[in-house]
């Protein structure tokens, strides 16, 4: 897998991650509400794979309403997984969750998951084809299973991108509670992330074998899609 974010998601950021996201509660809550709606018809004992599980926010939100679902989480950051493990223990969910250190490509292919979630992860993959991650998610799903993925996306060559960038800068000031320069934000978007136009991501999802991707969420540069494994 062509990305390593351990220098970003280190112990310091891992401990602050939820607090920072909490300042964007309206955005995060809306996305997770829509995800819950999309997954509402899964089997009573569904198996969910969370790619780049981070601090486990999606597991805790979903497990609260689905007491028989089981979750597998994988993440390359040991510091993020440590926070996730503590949160799952505090929530009494350890008997329904398995955490793995590494990348999706390290997991055995079982094709027995009812859904795969990959939230705000893929933009860290510097390969323009996302290094095959959508194909890897496809292989883990049952036929008819659902993928839900969200990433920071945008066409940096569009004449409208500077307007998007300015609002994104203001958002970062809200999160960090410090002044932010547009040039620094742009450098972060182009040097640490690989932003693809949303339409290119949709093409990659379909090329992996999924049904046409449905864009169910957008807030500024954050886009969310869902699709199904059709065969």
Say what oligomer this is. single chain
Instruction: Assign the CATH superfamily.
Output: Vaccinia Virus protein VP39
Q: Please state roughly what percent of the residues sit in beta strands, choosing from under 5%, 5-15%, 15-25%, 25-35%, 35-45% or over 45%.
A: 15-25%
Class in CATH? Answer: Alpha Beta
Biggest sheet statistics: 7 strands, mixed
Domain module tally: 1
Strand pairing plus helix content: what structural class?
Answer: alpha/beta
Continuous helix count: 8
Specify the helix fraction band: 25-40%
CATH topology: Rossmann fold
CATH architecture: 3-Layer(aba) Sandwich
Identify the overall geometry: globular
Supply Rg.
Answer: 17 Å
Unreliable residue runs:
none
- Please, what is the average pLDDT? 91
One letter per element, helices H and strands E, the order comes to HHEHEHEEHEHHHEE
Strand order of the largest sheet: 3-2-1-4-5-7-6
Span between N and C termini?
A: 25 Å
Give a count of the beta strands, DSSP E runs of length 2 or more: 7
Question: What would you say about this model in short?
Answer:
By secondary structure, this protein is of the alpha/beta class.
